[in-house]
## 1
Amino acid sequence: MCAIRLFKLLKENQSRIEQKGYELFAQDLVGITFSLWRAVFLADKKWERAVSLESAIQFFETLIADNAINYPQDKKFNEWTFNYYTNNVRYAFLHLEEGWKKFVPKWHSKDRPPEERWEYGQNHLEQTIEKFAEDLSARL
């Protein structure tokens, strides 16, 4: 649902986004949305660093051997790929927090189980999109 809301927001407000210089912010939101979209299907994982490291090594071996990674490989190595996508979300929000405080709530870093980590990122995205939408509609 969040992805659809962001898509519509971007499509309906493209010229306003460009006029206000929000293009890079909007593109970062697409990246965050993609990472969360991918991660939600990978959250059924153990919460063990050694298992994640083994998964990372196997992922890397597949990448080198086949020069291709698609969803089946994401799923097979979810012990690591889930971390990859949710880390992308965290890093993107921490970066956006610096220049876009009016849209992005403060990110509170802590160890979270996988499903809780995904939910935290998703809630953060929903709040950010809401503030972004309010800003765009206020400028009509």
Note: Residues 23-138 form one domain.
## 2
Amino acid sequence: MTKNGGALLSCAGGKVELPDRSLVLVDRADGGNLVVLPPRPVWDRSELDARELTQWSFLIAATARAMLDALPQLAEGCINYWDAGNWRLNVAAEPAGSKSGPKHRSVHMHLLGRSRTAKDRSWAWGEAPVFPKYADRFAWAKGREPLNAEECAAIVQRARELLLERYGMKVRGT
């Protein structure tokens, strides 16, 4: 998913990563963007068994809450959850041509911070988010900065606490 060093956090529920640097959807100052991968690659969340889906849901919720708790830019803000993987189905995506969901899609969850003070019109407070077309995704994301190392460390620390305290999940290592 990313080209920037791998997982920020891994556990039985999956992995938390920064988005690929060239595909940041929300600038860090406007709320930030993290990606939560399920515990194994699947094309749709319905392919996860009950335990996997539960643990992935715990990881998503803990990470989102951690973003709200750790990021000052999200004071009185919120998180939008985007069940993603659709760009892999575009006819222009490799391999070029028509594709089916089960064969080509890889579901992941984008956590999109929504700041009350967002400067980007695509993320204006009180409006639905605006996403680019597949062909425009790189130009659209250009100039958007990912969350920085300090912000990521604070989110990971808080997510670890929440996973243990609220959901009884222990996190080892990364």
Note: The chain has a mean pLDDT of 94.
## 3
Amino acid sequence: MSINDIKNMQRRIGVTDDGFWGPKSIAACQAHLRKLMPAKHPWPKSDQANLTKFYGKPGDESQLATIGVEGLGILYDGKPVRAIRCHQKVAISLKRVLTAISKGPHKAVLGEYAGCFNNRPMRGGSLPSLHARGAAVDLDPDHNGNGTSWPTRAIMPLEVMEEFAKEGWLAAGAFWGRDSMHLQATQ
């Protein structure tokens, strides 16, 4: 993001718009997103015990639902996506978020969809990824990769993160400072 983009975002989250993304901006951004989340958080904590209790075993395809997304502008490798398989508990929420994004000024991120359900471990580890439960989605990986610092290098719009936050989803970029393509249904 440009310095002006960062300054605009700082104004949006209520901190001094100096263009420096440091501890105060990070904390304010996280607080801003948490304020948008439902009062009663709908998703589990991200430890394996809570994830298994809520979502079931990773890789269990019987827990998946298919949501229709035709017409939302979602593309995978340049080809239209008609349906997404995700955990049945996140299906309605994910559909609402994707629909809202498709109607907004940042709908272009949907043109770079990179997946939801994928029965695999976390990158660089052995524990199951949230993708193995169908409770995470990746958008625009070319500009928001795992090793790319957000928002100084990665460009995931705060407004996209806000749409997910309204449904209680965690935006990795804002909460981890990297991997801003990744959004997950956890606390």
Note: The radius of gyration is 16 Å.
## 4
Amino acid sequence: MNPNSSHRVPYDDLYETCAETRVALLIYSGDILPDVITHRLALPPTGVSIAGRMTNPNSIGISRKEKLNIWKYSSEGQIISRDIRRHLDWMLDKLQPAKPALLELQTIPNLTMTLRCIWWSSLGDGGPTLWPEQMRRIADLNLECSFDLQFMSERKDGELPAL
């Protein structure tokens, strides 16, 4: 992506105010099973939830029944950067070829989708930056974009987590 000279905040993979970030497309598919979403998008999910399926036992041995059909595609482990724009660019590059299928899925009753951006602050201030380029691409795919902002406790040594 070519940055416009009017942009104030350049890409910065070390983004010092960020401890960690990622982006996920979440499709809450109602009665449609996640495998159908995978087939339509021609994109393998990074995670799924299938309504009625029992989860594997957690650390204290408790299983639960999954309540919703959810198809998830995440940048976690795919992009090594604290700049959320890198994660969004990667995600949008993956989703662009599936645009017709995404738009068709959005017409199905009881199916909803969102881009969920998770951003952990390392310093307690600052925040993620989006450029018009990312916002245009998100709008072109008719996707809402939500932000989950978290604040990390201060480390005693004052160091940021390693990339």
Note: The chain has a mean pLDDT of 91.
